[in-house]
Amino acid sequence: MAADFPLARWVGALKRGWMLYHLGDPRFRFMWDAPPQDEWVALDCETTGLNTKTDDIIAIGAVRIRGNRVMTSERLELLVRPDKQRITADSARVHRLRQQDVAQGVSADEAMMQLMHFIGSRPLVGYYLEFDVAMINRVLFPILGMGLPQEKIEVSGLYYDYKYRQLPSSARDNPAIDLRFDTLMRDLGLPLWPAHDALNDAVMAALAFLKLRELLR
């Protein structure tokens, strides 16, 4: 049995079954399907602030990746009406979105419906993706009873691995690797568009992912 169905697959199947059993909304069962081969979704969110417990999502950008191509024709760009938090002057200076810009946006719940159907079961790609996932999961948890199940791939982690491999042995005990996004993009020879635009950031993360994936092979 072990040869035909290794332990990792058995554990994965058990976990999938448990999560589906406890899924709050059966309309989202498709997120546990086998992902399309060589497809990913790059994702970015803009928010009213940096507190994952109290701030709100105000914009979502996502783009599909297929093979070695960023499919800019297959993208999702949403303005989201914040539930509670207002956009402060400090945050508006970062993402250039004002309260009136998002006042007619979709609700957070509607944004989740559109985003989940766009992602499907594809693995997620992003730069400091942990923050975006935490913001999404806070909205999603009351709907699903759980957070995003998809595999998550961190671009800054891939870049760290790439740069670490280039270090001499003497520097590997205390590596100093600059993980800032503009540094990463310039070092990889990739276009750097205006940051803190959700769709721009998603597309740039997708380009960095493809370049690093090739370099790390």
Structure described in brief:
Helix content is 42%, strand content 17%. By secondary structure, it is α/β, with parallel strands linked by helices.
Explain what the structure shows:
The structure is a single chain. With 217 residues, the chain is α/β, with parallel strands linked by helices. The chain has one domain: Nucleotidyltransferase, domain 5 (2-Layer Sandwich), CATH 3.30.420.10. 42% of the residues lie in helices and 17% in strands. It contains 8 helices and 5 strands; from the N terminus they run αβββαααβαβααα. The protein has helices at 7-21, 89-95, 99-102, 108-119, 129-144, 155-166, 181-187, 198-215, and strands spanning 39-47, 57-66, 69-79, 124-126, 152-154. It has a 5-stranded mixed β-sheet with strand order 3-2-1-4-5, with helices on both faces. Strand 2 and strand 3 form a beta hairpin. Helix 6 (155-166) runs parallel beside helix 8 (198-215). The longest helix has 18 residues, at 198-215. The two termini are 32 Å apart.
